[in-house]
Design a protein that fits this description.
With about 525 residues, this protein is of the alpha/beta class. Helices cover about 50% and strands about 10% of the residues. It is built from 17 helices and 15 strands. The N and C termini lie far apart (about 95 Å). The relative contact order is 0.06.
Length: about 525
């Protein structure tokens, strides 16, 4: 009599069933009992943990097929606890069965008798279709319940937004609550991007990576993660989900940021980056950057011929409906006003020196923190090495293949974590802040000179770094009081603080030596 070897494949479809239930163990036990009753030689178990039955690309199925391919001389029987454990999709069911049949393996179940007859095929198809129907109806029911919760202002997706966690409440059931200390990092990232502290999404990413040790789950922090948190209205205390036609509404959870901050972030995300085009040239570097304050349209640049037939460069508002007077501004006058504006918003040398000292102090503390983190990583790696050795020892002593594989898998995961942490270690000895700090502070202290000497694309970059909204101009009010980014508001902060200190004294009258400053805001 030919020997038949059994392979067992239990499956549960959710991570929660893996963590809290005993479905895998129960399925495996029933399948082993069935294998013994049939007189098969049990060889291995390949569990699918938290994997949907609607997909063909499943780890356990792949591993079983590879196992069969490695042992072509053996005859295998693949045992599933029930027909719906094979798949919950008709096409996937037959695709899996075909793969095993091509390798000479049979599929059996303690709860269903597979028959190679027209009637058996018909019944099998009906039952596979019933499994698919159950899955689709269950998915529809779950969607309807979740949509109803969203419409009531309750966030209910299984994955919590970073910086938040679910807590049970008497009124709304599971409700989002802020999670310390992650919430402070996420809030800092969102507000920093909104107020101009972080210019690009990559700056937000760098900020998050510096603080990733404060996250409970710090894997997957990349640009896609940054885009998700910047676009998530849930942080503003609102609920909205377009795929299910759930319109924006106030949520019952606590907000991290205001809705105004959220909208500011979206405007920044949707704002196209200014790039040099064929219409731009060095003769009119402020074309498309300066707007007419009367009508709000972009000003263009061109040469106009005077009565003396001399072409003169002007910036112009070409909007025929605009009543600005004059519409044509001489290039020399507008660019002079622009450079004077840059001079005016530049912090004084005393502020730059103080900022330099603060930056160096912060840098040194950061280096100290990085070194401390590096030591923590080394200690964590050593601890993982001990765990790896322990799991490998347990695997060598295990008598159950399933348990042995679990130990080996855990050891392999720990080894991957070790390699990943070693790659993330920063070479502190090669970090030098002097050049970077000097270049940034030179730009902050002399933005007009920096703008003057850089190329056209550089001028665009300088403009976007300084001004947070459209820069308006007219002949009477010039540039007025534009909105500027965070670094350049330092001057206002110091001026205000200085004024308050003088007001509090009230002891001596002002003298000519006191420098009076007018805020540019």
């Amino acid at each position: 009599m030919e020997k038949l070897y059994s392979l067992i494949s239990p499956r549960v479809s959710s991570e929660k069933q893996v963590r809290e239930g005993h479905g895998l163990e129960g399925q495996e036990q029933r399948c082993k009992k069935f294998s013994d009753e049939k007189g098969y030689i049990y060889e291995a178990t390949f569990p699918d943990e938290g994997v949907s039955g609607a997909i063909l690309d499943r780890p356990a199925i792949k591993q079983m097929l590879q196992h069969i391919d490695k042992n072509p001389s053996k005859k295998y029987v693949v045992i599933f606890d029930d027909i719906n454990r094979i798949a919950r999709d008709v096409q996937v069911h037959w695709a899996i069965k075909k793969e095993f049949e091509l390798r000479g393996a049979k599929i059996e179940s303690p709860n269903f008798n597979f028959e190679d007859t027209p009637e058996g095929t018909f019944i099998e198809t009906i039952l596979a279709g019933k499994s698919q129907l159950d899955r689709q109806q269950n998915a529809r029911q779950v969607k309807q319940k979740m949509k109803a919760r969203l419409e009531c202002g309750v966030y209910c997706f299984s994955a919590c937004p970073c910086g938040m966690e679910y807590k049970k409440t008497a009124e709304h059931g599971k409700l989002l609550h802020i999670k310390e200390p992650e919430v402070n990092i996420i809030k800092g990232a969102l507000e920093g991007f909104a107020n101009g502290r972080f210019i690009m999404q990559s700056d937000v990413l760098n900020f998050l990576l510096k603080h990733k040790h404060e996250f409970e789950k710090n894997k997957g922090i990349n640009l896609n993660f940054v885009k998700r948190i910047l676009s998530a209205i849930v942080y503003a205390g609102y609920i909205e989900y377009a795929p299910w036609e759930v319109k924006r509404r106030k949520g019952h959870h606590e907000a991290l940021i205001s809705i105004e901050t959220y909208e500011k972030i979206q405007d920044k995300l949707n704002k196209p980056e200014k790039k040099v085009t064929t219409r731009d040239n060095d003769e009119f570097p402020l074309r498309r950057l300066v707007y007419c304050s009367i009508c709000g349209k972009k000003m263009t640049g061109a040469y106009h011929t005077s009565k003396k037939k001399v072409p003169t460069p002007h910036y112009t508002c070409n909007n025929t409906a605009c009543n600005a007077s004059p519409k044509n501004i001489k290039r020399i006058d507008l660019e002079k006003d622009y450079k004077e504006l840059l001079h005016r918003i530049a912090p004084e040398s005393e502020i730059i020196d103080l900022t330099r000292a603060i930056a160096i102090d912060v840098w040194q503390k950061s280096i100290s923190k990085i070194k401390s983190t590096e030591n923590e990583i080394i200690e964590e790696n050593e601890e993982r090495e001990k765990q790896i050795e322990n799991y490998l020892n347990l695997a060598s002593k295990a008598t159950n293949d399933f348990v042995r594989e679990k130990y080996e898998t855990r050891a392999e995961m720990l080894e991957k974590e070790n390699k990943a942490s070693k790659k993330q270690a920063l070479p502190c000895n090669n970090l030098n802040s002097d050049d970077a700090i000097s270049e940034v502070l030179d730009f902050l202290g002399t933005p007009a000179e920096y703008w003057q000497k850089t190329n056209l694309q550089g001028k665009f970059m300088v403009h976007d770094l300084i001004f947070t909204s459209n820069l308006m101009y007219d002949a009477e009010n010039r540039f007025g009081t534009p909105e500027i980014s965070l670094p350049f508001t330092i001057k206002d902060a110091f001026s205000t603080a200085s004024s308050r200190r003088v007001d509090r004294t009230g002891l001596e009258p002002a003298t000519s030596s006191v420098q009076m400053r007018r805020s540019t805001r």
